[in-house]
């Protein structure tokens, strides 16, 4: 794993946007794995600004999001569909056919998971997967204890994750209890991974990821065995790392 140290969130966002845009501009065909959460918002904003200045083409780009809550509509401001639309997609020349996000309202959720996997396969896998990290070390919604070869599946969210994500909802009781997420095996099949870590609340998880042996209690630690991972972290997140 390569660690890139950023001074602050702004620089982290700039480095991440440059990293992604280089691939977008160079590749003839690109399958991008995307993430939600507050961490990538600055990166997405800079990608939008690049488009406004340079009219970068996205006609060769396909996207797959990591996860979505079960039981909330795509038009619900707390859905990851809505997040992606507002924070990125509506500002880029990208059509709905190019975008994939798990359908948390599917009648048959197991079938939706299988379909999601087959769609990724049909695009010959993910070239670059962008990741954030939960304070308990989750990636996507793969909570501690998730098996290393898991594929896209339905998860019961932990209380810690529901509590940290409750800031976006009116009340904790409104935070969904389940989500669909790419599995750790799905994420590990990506050809390249870019993990963004920002803020003191992630510093313990980042320290464990960098300094301890891989352990299922820290799902992100599986990244240690991936051949092509770049971590961009800001100084707050790096507070325990020497
Ligand atoms: C959610 C998402 C994760 C994300 C995490 C951290 O749980 N499912 O993909 O990495 O939040 O979010 P934030 O960047 O807001 O700290």
Characteristics of this structure?
single chain, 242 residues, alpha/beta, Rossmann fold, seven-stranded parallel sheet, three-stranded antiparallel sheet, 31% helix, binds 2-amino-2-deoxy-6-O-phosphono-alpha-D-glucopyranose
In the CATH scheme, the class would be Alpha Beta
Cα radius of gyration in angstroms: 17 Å
Structural class: alpha/beta
Runs in which pLDDT lies below 50 for 5 or more consecutive residues are none
Spatial strand sequence of the major β-sheet: 1-10-9-6-2-3-5
Distance between the termini: 16 Å
Bound molecules: 2-amino-2-deoxy-6-O-phosphono-alpha-D-glucopyranose
State the order of secondary-structure elements, H for helix, E for strand: EHEHEEHEHEEHEHEHE
CATH architecture: 3-Layer(aba) Sandwich
Percent of sequence in beta strands:
15-25%
Average pLDDT metric: 97
Number of helical elements: 7
Give a written overview of the molecule.
There is one protein chain. The radius of gyration is 17 Å and the shape is globular. It contains 7 helices and 10 strands. The longest helix has 18 residues, at about 10-25. The protein has about 240 residues and is an alpha/beta fold. The strands form 2 sheets. Strands 1-10-9-6-2-3-5 form a 7-stranded parallel beta sheet, covered by helices on one side. Helix content is about 30%, strand content about 20%. Strand 2 (about 30-35), helix 2 (about 40-55) and strand 3 (about 60-65) form a beta-alpha-beta unit. It has one domain (about 1-235): Rossmann fold (3-Layer(aba) Sandwich). The structure holds 2-amino-2-deoxy-6-O-phosphono-alpha-D-glucopyranose. 2-amino-2-deoxy-6-O-phosphono-alpha-D-glucopyranose binds near residues 39, 66, 133 and 141. The site of 2-amino-2-deoxy-6-O-phosphono-alpha-D-glucopyranose has 14 residues, from helix 5.
